[in-house]
Design goal:
With 120 residues, this protein is α+β, with helices and mostly antiparallel strands. The chain contains four helices and six strands; from the N terminus they run ααβααβββββ. The strands form two sheets. Strands 1-6-2-3 form a four-stranded antiparallel sheet. Strands 4-5 form a two-stranded antiparallel sheet. α3 crosses α4. The radius of gyration is 16 Å and the shape is elongated.
């Protein structure tokens, strides 16, 4: 049995709000994401060639619709990889974060925080 694409419900909103994107291509691409999957806006930008600001606007619309929720992840400035820790709010981010990949101590992790999304 094929799983339904929960992102189909935002397609009419994308058209209504006049985003400058191919709504069908967006919905089709998003079909690969399922409950508890992480969505990286940079991946959508790379794959769909959509302006990064528009991607964040679209994903925030999905937050409002209860399809995804926002998280923060820390990016290591030394090895250019994510540290693997997820935070729901900026207040959860510790003062220091160690990168599990290169063991760098990131002294101002908020400066290296990236907003990502998780499918509900």
């Amino acid at each position: 049995m094929m799983q339904s694409n929960i992102f189909q419900e935002v397609a009419p909103l994308l058209k209504e709000k006049k985003f400058n994107i191919d709504c069908d291509a967006f919905v089709e691409f998003m079909a690969q994401y399922h409950s508890k999957d992480w969505i990286y806006p940079s991946a959508l930008h790379r794959e769909l060639k959509i302006n990064i600001k528009e991607i964040y606007d679209i994903l925030e619309l999905c937050v409002e619709k209860g399809i995804v929720e926002q998280y923060l992840q820390i990016y290591c400035p030394t090895c250019q990889r994510f540290t693997g820790n997820y935070y729901k709010t900026v207040f959860e981010i510790p003062e220091f974060v160690n990168c599990v990949h290169c063991d760098t101590e990131i002294d101002v992790p908020l400066r290296n925080a990236v907003i990502i999304y998780r499918v509900l």
